[in-house]
Structures are given as structure tokens and as C-alpha cells.
Amino acid sequence: MLIEDKFMTLATDNAPGQEMRSKADNITHQMKGGTLIGTPVDFSHGDVDAFEPTPGSFDAFADGVHAGGKQAYTEYRGSASIRSVVAGRVGAFTGAPVDANEELIITPGTQGALFLAVAATVTNGDKVAIVQPDYFANRKLVQFFGGEMVPVILGYEGKDHDAGINLNELEQAFEAGAKVFVFSNPNNPTGVVYSKTEIEAIAKLAKAYGATVIVDQLYSRLRYEGTSYTHLRALSERPNNLITIMGPSKSESLSGYRLGAAFGSAHLIERMEKLQAIVSLRASGYNQAVLNTWFNEPSGWMEERIRLHQAIRDDLVSTFRGAGLPVRVPQAGSYLFPKLPALEVGPHDFVKLLRHQTGVIATPGSEFGPHSLDSVRLNFSQDHTAAVAAVKRLVELVERYKK
Amino acid sequence: MLIEDKFMTLATDNAPGQEMRSKADNITHQMKGGTLIGTPVDFSHGDVDAFEPTPGSFDAFADGVHAGGKQAYTEYRGSASIRSVVAGRVGAFTGAPVDANEELIITPGTQGALFLAVAATVTNGDKVAIVQPDYFANRKLVQFFGGEMVPVILGYEGKDHDAGINLNELEQAFEAGAKVFVFSNPNNPTGVVYSKTEIEAIAKLAKAYGATVIVDQLYSRLRYEGTSYTHLRALSERPNNLITIMGPSKSESLSGYRLGAAFGSAHLIERMEKLQAIVSLRASGYNQAVLNTWFNEPSGWMEERIRLHQAIRDDLVSTFRGAGLPVRVPQAGSYLFPKLPALEVGPHDFVKLLRHQTGVIATPGSEFGPHSLDSVRLNFSQDHTAAVAAVKRLVELVERYKK
Fold it and tell me: Which cofactors does this gene product need (chains A, B) (predicted)?
């Protein structure tokens, strides 16, 4: 593959957070009506001013700086003492022990963990099963390493218990030779959680076919009332090669520190460390110290954060449904993935018009797979009042452009 | 290539900073004599407790945290306002302007910049010219992306003006189809600086053959008395595709913040940003704010830092030469690369014995190329007294194991 082609697949033109680099195409000729005034809301990511970083996180960072050289230069996989703390806590959270010395690596964000995990398992010509819709980087990573994507549909609409993965397609993917399965749980962009039955079936299939599973559990702490969650790694029947990814960037609002962790099969973690040595050496040494606050927040803090997010979720779901726009109620995390009706403008132009006419930034569904062009993703970890008003403007704009 | 083989080339067993993970092989049967007592010195990297981070760096970080969401979530290539500051300063330093919007990316350390630059220019089967000896990651990166390394010898010994690059070999590499040339200037591990004649010749050859040049100038600020430095990017006759890499991890002791910058050809910077989006998203947002201190240190601060390093350099060079061990005087940076005589033990075992018997950590020459197995690299950015005592113990151990 020519290097030009390799990078063609990595387009970031519609990627969340890159809106400010988007060329100011002239869309005024498509514009219907004037602007709708209101507080701008950037739903492409959570607002860490509305939901602030974990209490004590800055102090933990300052402790890291004061610790000096030994904190600045850690092993490539991260400081041994911090790995020990984190391994204990993620082991307890996920229900199965993690060996701090061999089974865990600290990375620059969960993105860093995902990159290393895919790089450690996928090379030219490898088939990789990928859920549609799912986090956009999964697909791009497979393409970058020369892998071949085998799609597995997530039929999330109209369900309220199962996530809706098509297990027949997953088995067919394994039969066709897929060596790796990458998925997020809770699913990004829909916020649905895989049921115990689904996770057990995934684990059983992967084990039977000898496939590696990479499960991105970034949002698995922020779970709403009535949601039960199954950690694949805690099942007795699970694949031999399994990497679980988590990090404090979302529910804990620590994204500015770029921290993530991957834990699982020791030989894969070892590969990931070898690669991290030439990718970025290590997660910033001082930043690593912030992980001391992770899973150690003040009593009741996470519960309150969940309660506040659930209240926003419920108001936004009501607003969308009240306007006749279908949306599944997310069971965890802070993404909403409503479906828009047929519009007079293309989906990317609508997102641009939305930004210019209402000050609302949403991520087009095309980023998450080819079957969700008519949806937009909203990260509703925002100021409650501003978010409700912004979604009302969004709904009003949909009405304007509806066919 | 099988993925197992791909990762075989990425061994980190002897990589600097990974000594604590090195399996405790039993080397006592090879041990001659007892231990030599003294303050332990880890020459694998600089000691940021002996040479502290730039004054004001922590305050700049704190300002970043207080700025909140807009600093936590920057564009993937880094905050626009910080890029603007950095572009102005590196443009002035290197003698040619840098467009902040199109020609610069902020990365997690210079390692992050090097990774992205090689990934943006090298793919399966591409030939890449690599200097021997040079920074170990250059070779590993080329191998990881399936490139083919074409070695170019740096005959640094016995010279005191030219770095010693074999320009005939470089031209042969280009003739043989090398599309990319990666090198560090000042050279890591030897500390030699390429002369104006050499840099002009490299630029001319690369331009003539249409090759891309990636030049790692990490240490180009810490230059000793009498050293002149030529920035390749400021030459009027230079290659069309050129990336220059710098960062504040070394001379400025800001390694704990993991910051780097790459600047040059806009289309390559664009590829690097697309890739950064799936590698780590961005350099930690808050950390980026620390770049506001870069090239803006208190008056006289860098001059004093250079003076102190030059004094250590001179004492260590005298100690090595006094014991009959050849070493070229580094013109910049803080690496020494002395040559050891024939020993009764292998070079990796000697490094282990050195660590166990004297508390001195050095990096084996094998990390930098196949022709320097008889050298060791020392980063002498250390406490002056401790460093001199440590090198005396090293020299004493060499005497013990000399054939």
C-alpha cells in the first residue's frame, strides 16, 4: 500500500474536537432561516468545566512533580508503585485479579492503550471483527496496520436489555479467520451495555476460535439505575488472549492528564510496552501520579456524578422523543445517538449548519460506521441547562431542514 | 511478517531506563573482586533532581489546569495559541520561519514526534538511511514499519570538527533508493555536531535525490564553547520534505511532562496529526501549557546550565582519557560515548556487573548500532561530584576485567 493511501484512510475532517480546523466551506447558500441564539455547547466531548476533575487530582500531580526524578522517569509500562495501586483497584472493580508486574501497562490515555493493543495483535492481512457502530478509531487502527475489517452489526435500536450484537455475524467473522475482536462496552456512540448473555457468548466464541479480544471499558463506571454490567475478564470461560482497557478521562474528567491503562495477557502487555518505548516512551511521569486518585474518589462522589448525568440524560431523551426523533436510552456513559429524519441537506452539511446556526457541535454518525449516517453523537456530560437548550435548538433546526 | 517477528525486533532488554525490569540473571560466577562503594549514578538518563526543571514550569502547568476545558481538549496537533508561541520561538532559534497553523505539531515527547515522523514517511519495503551509531529508536521505528535500513557510518573517532558522516555511503543509500534519511544532530550517543559542510552536503544530496529528511535536534540548545551549529532547515538549498524535531525534555529537564514538537513540511505535519489522533489523541492538554516557558527561561539560565555541564564533561573526559580509554569530547548535549578495551566478559555482562558491583548504570553501545559494542553511553547531566566518583569506579572495574 502506498503511504499516501495509508493516510487517506485516516481522515480527521469530521473527527470530534477537530471542528476548529474544518475549512470554512461556504454553506450559506444552503442555509434556511437565521441563527438560533443560546449558550454554545460542544457535544463532541465532555465539558470538564461543568463536571470538574476528581477532587485532589491536581494535588496528586503536584506530589508527582515534588517526587522529582524517580517520578519523571518511570519504566516504560509506568511506575511500579502506581501500577501496584492501579492493578489492585481495577482487579477489584472488574472482579478478577491483575498482576501489577506483568499484566498492566499505563498509557497516554485510553487512546494510547487502544493503539498499542491493536498494534500488538494486528498486522498486514489480518482479519479483525469490528462492531458497527463503534468508536471510530477501532476501524482506523485496523486499517492503519494493514488489517482487514470484518463488520459485525450492533442492532441496538428498539431494544432495552441486550446491546443487540449479531452473534451469528461474530461467529461468521471468526469462521472466516478473524483473529481479533475489538469492541467498546458500554458501546460508543450508543451508550448501550452488553448483557451477561451477550458477553458470555462473545467470550465462548472467542475462546473456541482462539481469537484475541480487546474490550474498551472506558465508560464502565458511569452506569445508570437498573444497569447490570458483566466484565468479560471475570468469566471463567474466557479467551486466552484478552486485553481490557480503562482510564479516568471521562467519568472522572481527567482527560487533560492523558491517562489510560490496559490490563490482561502478559505477553500482549509485554509487546505493548516494547512498542510504547518507541511511540512515546511512557505516559507523562508526573501525570501518572494522578492515577493515585482513581477508584479512590471521596465517598459518594461517583454516585452523585452518576445521578447528575442521569438527570441530563432523561431530559435530553425526553426532548428528542418529544420531537419524534428516535433515541435509545443509554445505560451507561454520557453518549446519546439519536436518529434524524430524512433531511434536505447531507449529514455533514447538517452538522456544519448546526454549528453555524445554533452554536451546537455534534459528531456525525458517519464516524462510527457506514450504517449510521442519519444519526449524530452527543456527549451529554455538559452543563445541564445549556445542554437542554442546545438540544431544543438542534430539534428546531431538524424541523427546518426536514424533507 | 508474522507479528511475533515484528515484535522480536523491538527488544527493550538493554534499553535505557528499563534496567529495573532486567531479569536478575546470576552473574556472580563471573564477578571479580567485591563491590566499589559510592553514590549510585544512573547514567541512562539525566538526573532532573541534580538539574531541575525550568523555573516556572510547574506554575505554567498549574495555569493550564486552571484554564480548564479549553486547555484539556486541544486540537490533536496541540493548542493553537501555544503552537503560535512555540512556532515563533523555534523559527527564531533555527533561523527560518515556522507557520504555526500548518507546519507544527506538539507531541508527547520528542519520541512521539519521531514515531509520527517515521510513520508518516516509511511503509513496507521502503529503504531508509540510518546513521550508525545513532539513537536506538531510529532503527527500531524503521523495522516496525516494515522499512529496510541502509546503514551510513559515522566515523566520529579521532576527529574534532566534522561529525564524520560518510557522505559517499549516504549518496549510495540514496542511489540504492532510500527515500528517507533519519539522523540526530547533535548525534546521540556521541555528542558530536555535524559541521556546516556536512549539513550542506546532506541537504544537497537529499534534495537531488528527492529524499525526505527527519532531523532530531533534541540537544541543539546545549552547545559547548567553540561549537557552531548549522540548522538544516535554514539552508537555502534544502530538501522539499523536511521535518525537524525538538523538545524540552533534556537541556530543560522537562522530561516528566512529555513534550516535543515537530515542524516542517505541511503535508507531513498533516499526516502526523491524523496519526496522532489514533495514537494518543494529543499531548496531554495541561502539559502543553508548560511549553510557554520554553525558549523563555530567565536571563542567563541556559548559559549557566551549559557552563555547569561543560565542567562535568571536562572532568569525565579527563578521567576516561587518564585511564587510557578513548573518548571524543562531545560538542553539545550531555552524552559521552567512551570506548572500552577488550574485556574478559561480554559487553552486556559488563554493564550488569557495573550495575551490581559499583551502582553505576550505563547503556551498552549495542543499542546504537552494530559497530559500537565496545562502547557505553553515559548521560552526564548528573550531580557533578557523584558523576566523577562513578566514572572512577567504572574505570576501576574496566581495569579488573581487562583482558
Answer: pyridoxal 5'-phosphate
Q: Has residue A180 got a pLDDT over 80?
A: yes
**Binary contact (A284, B287; C-beta < 8 A):** yes
For residue B71, list chain A residues with Cβ-Cβ distance below 8 A. Answer: 256
Are A39 and A91 found together in one domain? no
Partners of A182 in the β-ladder: A130, A214
CB contact under 8 A, A115 and B279: yes
Cβ within 8 Å, pair A80-B20: yes
User: Do A257 and A375 reside in the same domain of the chain?
Assistant: no
**What is the reported pLDDT for A137?**
94
Contact A165, A143 (CB under 8 A): no
B68 contact A CB<8A? yes
Q: Would you say B116 and B313 are in contact if contact means Cβ atoms under 8 Å apart? A: no
Does residue B2 lie within any of the structural domains?
A: no
Query: Do A186 and A125 lie in a common domain?
Result: yes
Query: Which of A249, A274, A293 is at the close of a domain?
Result: A293
> Is position B5 within any domain?
no
Q: Exposed/middle/buried for A242, CB within 10 Å: 0-12, 13-18, 19+?
A: buried
Residue B1 lies in a domain: no
Backbone angles phi, psi at B129, to 5 degrees: -80, 130
- Tracing cell 507523562 back to the chain, one arrives at A284
Give yes or no: residues B246 and B312 share one domain. Answer: no
- Would you call B39 an interface residue with chain A, using a CB distance cutoff of 8 Å? no
Q: In this complex, do B280 and A12 lie within 8 Å of one another by their Cβ atoms? A: no
Which residues in chain B (113-152) have CB-CB distances under 8 A to chain A? Answer: 114-115, 120-124, 126, 137, 140-141, 144, 146
Q: Which residues 73-102 of chain B have a CB within 8 Å of chain A? A: 73, 75-76, 80
Considering the domain architecture, whether residues A140 and A14 belong to the same structural domain is answered as: no
Nearest to B17 among A75, A140, A278 (CB): A75
* Last residue of one domain, picked from the residues B247, B273, B293: B293
The number of C-beta contacts closer than 8 angstroms across A and B is 193
Q: What is the CATH number of the domain that holds A334?
A: 3.90.1150.10
Structural domains counted in chain B: 2
Q: Which of residues 198-257 of A touch B (CB under 8 A)?
A: 255-257
Query: Which member of A20, A69, A80 has the closest CB to residue B47?
Result: A69
Give me the domain span that covers residue B382: 14-52+300-401
User: In sequence order, what E strands does A59-198 have?
Assistant: 104-107, 127-132, 148-153, 180-184
Where residue A161 falls among pLDDT bands split at 50, 70, 90?
confident
Q: Do B144 and A278 touch (CB under 8 A)?
A: yes
CATH of the domain at B208: 3.40.640.10
Q: What share of chain A is helix, strand, coil (3-state, %, to 5)?
A: 40, 15, 45
Determine the residue type at B3. Answer: I
Please list the pLDDT of chain B residue by residue as tens digits (403 residues). Answer: 788 888 887 877 777 777 767 665 678 888 999 999 999 999 999 999 999 999 999 999 999 999 999 999 999 999 999 999 999 999 999 999 999 999 999 999 999 999 999 999 999 999 999 999 999 999 999 999 999 999 999 999 988 789 999 999 999 999 999 999 999 999 999 999 999 999 999 999 999 999 999 999 999 999 999 999 999 999 999 999 999 999 999 999 999 999 999 999 999 999 999 999 999 999 999 999 999 999 999 999 999 999 999 999 999 999 999 999 999 999 999 999 999 999 999 999 999 999 999 999 999 999 999 999 999 999 999 999 999 999 999 999 999 999 9
Cβ within 8 Å, pair A144-B278: yes
B342 burial class (0-12, 13-18, 19+ CB within 10 angstroms)? exposed
**CB environment A172-207: b (16+ within 10 A), e (fewer):** ebbeeebbbbbbbbbbbbbbbbbbeebbbbbbbbbb
Distance from CA of B123 to the nearest CA of A (A): 6
Nearest by CB: A256 against B48, B120, B285: B285
Q: Do B77 and B43 have their domain in common? A: no
Nearest residue, CB atoms, B3 vs list A68, A75, A121: A121
Which amino acid does the sequence have at B143? Q
Asked if A258's CB is within 8 angstroms of B283's CB, the reply is yes
User: Is residue B375 included in any domain, yes or no?
Assistant: yes
Are both A313 and A285 inside the same structural domain? no
